[in-house]
Write a structure and sequence with these properties.
Distance between the termini: 46 Å
Number of helices: 4
Number of strands: 9
Radius of gyration: 17 Å
Number of domains: 2
Length: 162
């Protein structure tokens, strides 16, 4: 399992979370293919993930990065943390994200930590349940991040001032 962080010239953060190798047995021996799970973010509230497959490792990582940039989403960040508690699920995985006080840091496992760091979240408490599969945990984390709303957005939706 690779855990490589890249800081690009434009300031974006790219982390390769998982590289999987698959072997197909053919007449001449084994033919390998590779799949890469990559998280990309700008550290300022924009983050995405991608899954790319190819016959070599570098093309699979490039495909995953391209998909991550294409499918990125904006995360509301309030004082270095998230605005409120949120629960994300995907398949069997369940991830709880809790806002934390400044100075707490990112308390999370490797997959959820990669997403939070790429998004630019500085202080957060997390807990994952039922699965430790990185691809499923990343998808559950993104499900949670999609549910986040800022206070101003909620006020507009409800038509009241909180």
């Amino acid at each position: 399992m690779a855990n490589v962080t890249d800081q690009n010239a434009d300031g974006s953060i790219e982390r390769v979370l998982k590289i999987k190798r698959c072997a197909a047995v053919v007449k001449g021996g084994r033919r390998f293919s590779f799949a890469a799970l990559v998280v990309v973010g700008d550290g300022k509230g924009r983050v995405g993930f991608g899954y790319g497959k190819a016959n070599e490792v570098p093309p699979s990582v490039q495909k995953a990065q391209k998909q991550a940039n294409r499918d990125a989403l904006d995360v509301p960040i309030v004082e270095g943390s998230i605005p409120h508690r949120v629960v994300g699920t995907y398949g069997a995985a369940k991830v709880i994200l809790l806002p934390a006080n400044p100075g707490t840091g990112i308390i999370a496992g490797p997959a959820v930590r990669a997403v939070c760091e790429a998004a630019g979240i500085k202080d957060i408490l997390t807990k994952s349940f039922s699965s430790n599969n990185p691809s499923v945990l990343v998808k559950a984390t993104f499900d949670a991040l999609k549910q986040l709303r800022k206070r101003e957005d909620v006020e507009l939706l409800r038509g009241v001032s909180l």
